[in-house]
Each structure stands twice: as structure tokens, then as C-alpha cells.
Task: structure prediction
Amino acid sequence: MVEFGLIGKKLSHSFSKKYFEQKFIYLNLTDHFYHLFELKEISGLPKLIQSHPAIKGLNVTIPYKEEIIPLLNGLDDIAEKVGAVNVVKVEADKTLSGYNTDYYGFKKSLLDWISPGELKALVLGTGGAARAVCTVLSDLHIPYIKVSRKKQDDILTYEDLKTDELFLKEHKLIINATPLGMFPEVNTHPDFNYELVGPEHYLYDLVYNPELTLFLKKGFTRSASIKNGYEMLHLQAEKAWEIWSV
Ligand SMILES: NC(=O)c1ccc[n+]([C@@H]2O[C@H](COP(=O)([O-])OP(=O)(O)OC[C@H]3O[C@@H](n4cnc5c(N)ncnc54)[C@H](OP(=O)(O)O)[C@@H]3O)[C@@H](O)[C@H]2O)c1
Result:
């Protein structure tokens, strides 16, 4: 038997479980199982690993992508750079290695869509996903500014975007790395003046459910190019499988 699973605090519906269970069927891996592990605290991880000796890999979701790091034995270079882990490999000797496949998924999906050129970006949100996005943008030499609800040094607020139109005029790539617009809150969207968006803008939403969020709909109405998080989601899952399989 070989086991995998997703750890998080609240796991009502999971893309990963469906994705990997379908993969096991497709590859005829009848002894492979994927579980949902709801942990009240990340400190429950060692006990979980102990009680499931067949575990080979874990996906990690909110709110543990950063909290899990001190419990791991090592990080690969990208996870170290991002400062967040969404994939854990349980090595043969039971040591735990952390990876960040969100970085890989975002980078590949972005480069399949745009050529960076002279683009500058706004990154909406400052959570784990935004950290992976910002690391990719830095590595691709795409200048960016983060946008948050809280005023902090070097970070804009949504109010700043409203008071100075230049931010939206000069930053043509706008990336939603907040959960705004995600099912079931489909009527929410990042709060800025969409009238300033035009055909030369690119709106990338990390949200993948629904396929067309209000953020993307508003961009599309203004003739911007749009992309949702679906391709990133698949790419990050495939990369996780590759990591667990070697
Ligand atoms: N497509 C993919 O493969 C993929 C991969 C990873 C994540 N995601 C998606 O990306 C999104 C963000 O993920 P995450 O793990 O970074 O989530 P998160 O930590 O829960 O939230 C990210 C950030 O969004 C901002 N935010 C949260 N609630 C908000 C609200 N009501 N209004 C405005 N801003 C709000 C916060 O930044 P401030 O406090 O600074 O405002 C927060 O740090 C989720 O929808 C997730 O499903 C997709």
C-alpha cells in the first residue's frame, strides 16, 4: 500500500484528492490511496506520519504552508526562496523534505501566456500563494508591487490604487492572489477601479473555481487578456507527482 494526503485545517472539498484518485485509476495503481487529513494544529504532523507508515507524500494547504517549515528536515532551493511549502516528500528513512510546486505551476503557466518584456505587475494579497508569485516575478525580472488591506512599507493598499490612477496605468499585469471571488463567495472581487483597465492589461486570477471570476469578468469586459488558476493548479499537482515518484 502507498498513501498520500492533503493536510490543512478545514478540508471540505479538495481538488487534490479527486486529481490523484483519478490518476491512480488511470495508472491502475490499485494499492495507492489519497486521504484528507484535517489537523487542528500543525504540531499533529509527526503523529500523523507515525500512524500512517505507508505515507509517501503530502500536499499542504491553508493555513500550514509556512507553519510546517520548522517540522521538516530540509527544503529544496525554491521552497527555501519562497518561504512556503505546499508539497512534502516522505523519504525512505522517514525524513521530510519540503517543496513549493505553486512556484513551478505559476511560472510555467505565466510564461505560456505572456512574454515578460516591459511588463510591471501588481500582486493582490500577501499570503502563501502571493509569496510564490512574487518569487517567480523576481526571478523573471518583472518589477512588481504588492497590494494589501493593511498599510505596510513597500506595500500599497486598495485605497492607494484608488487615489493614484498611475499605479493601474503603469502596471499592466494584475495578479489576484487573494481568495476573493472563489466559490461560494463568487460575488466578491478585489476592490479597485476597473475603469482604468484596458486592452493592454493582463489579469491573472489564481482562483480556479469558478472558471470565470468577477475579477476576470470585469477585465474581459474592458478587453483585457485574462487567465484563471486552472492551468497552474494542474501543473503544480503534476510536479508534486513527479517529486513523489523519484
Ligand atoms: N491555482 C492554483 O494552483 C493555486 C495555488 C495556490 C493558491 N491558489 C488560490 O490563491 C488564493 C490565495 O491563496 P493563499 O493560500 O495565499 O490564501 P490566503 O493566505 O488565505 O490569502 C491570501 C491573501 O489574500 C488576502 N485576503 C484574504 N482575504 C481577503 C479579503 N476578504 N479581501 C481582500 N484580501 C483578502 C490577504 O492579504 P492581505 O491581508 O495582505 O490583504 C491574504 O494574505 C486562494 O484562492 C487559493 O485557492 C491557487
Q: What stands out?
A: The two ends are 17 Å apart (CA to CA). The first strand starts at residue 2 and ends at 8. DSSP finds nine helices and twelve strands in the chain.
